[in-house]
Design a protein that fits this description.
Oligomer: heterodimer
Largest sheet of chain B: none
CATH architecture of the largest domain in chain A: Beta Barrel
Strand content of chain B: 25-35%
Helix content of chain A: 10-25%
Order of helices and strands of chain B: HE
Structural class of chain B: alpha+beta
Number of strands of chain B: 1
Distance between the termini of chain B: 73 Å
Helix content of chain B: 25-40%
Radius of gyration of chain A: 15 Å
Number of helices of chain A: 3
Shape of chain B: rod-shaped
Largest sheet of chain A: 5 strands, mixed, barrel
Chain lengths: ~130, ~35
């Protein structure tokens, strides 16, 4: 799995802890990393993902469907799952302010052995770390 | 002469590189099951 993840575009380093089942991925600064691709690659290597968290910096914008999204690049954005923290970021829509957030992009549904890794990922904000 | 020095200092001061915050994914962490 470590090799498989390390081959994904935009991945700089992969650290695996067998004891607590934790995988840390450090992206390159080229912005090419795709969390959905990492999720798929992990499943394809025969390992089940229980949870995927991400720390990212981006702008809050509204997409064509009216969803609030965290935009990392013109072609890379994540729809925000509504919660108190995401509501607090709504006034920043279309402002140049960059926000750094930690959030949950994926959680395996309870009771299912294998989840649909191809389902669109929503970012549930767990912590707003910085506004700049 | 002094004016020239001051102007030069101002010019150099304005060229100090300030790190610009960039939008990016900084870290990804997964909790996995079934790993051997």
């Amino acid at each position: 799995m470590k090799q498989s993840l390390g081959r994904q575009s935009g991945v700089q380093t992969v650290e695996v802890s067998l004891i607590d089942g934790k995988v840390d991925v450090t992206p390159k600064e080229d912005g090419q990393i795709d969390p959905a691709q990492l999720l798929k690659a992990t499943y394809d290597s025969g390992v089940s993902v229980a949870e995927l968290d991400m720390t990212a910096r981006g702008k809050i914008v509204k997409d064509s469907l009216g969803n609030f999204v965290l935009q990392i690049a013109p072609n890379r954005s994540f729809v925000l799952a509504p919660n108190e923290l995401s509501k607090g970021l709504e006034p920043l829509v279309d402002s140049p302010t960059l926000v750094t957030v930690r959030g949950q992009l994926y959680k395996k549904p309870a009771g299912k052995k294998k989840a649909d890794a191809s389902a669109p990922l929503k970012l549930l904000i767990l912590e707003v770390q910085k506004k700049e | 002469m002094n004016t020239k020095r001051v102007a030069m200092l101002l010019l150099l001061g304005s060229m100090v590189v300030v790190p610009v915050a960039q939008a990016q994914i900084k870290h990804i962490e997964m909790r996995v099951e079934g790993m051997t």
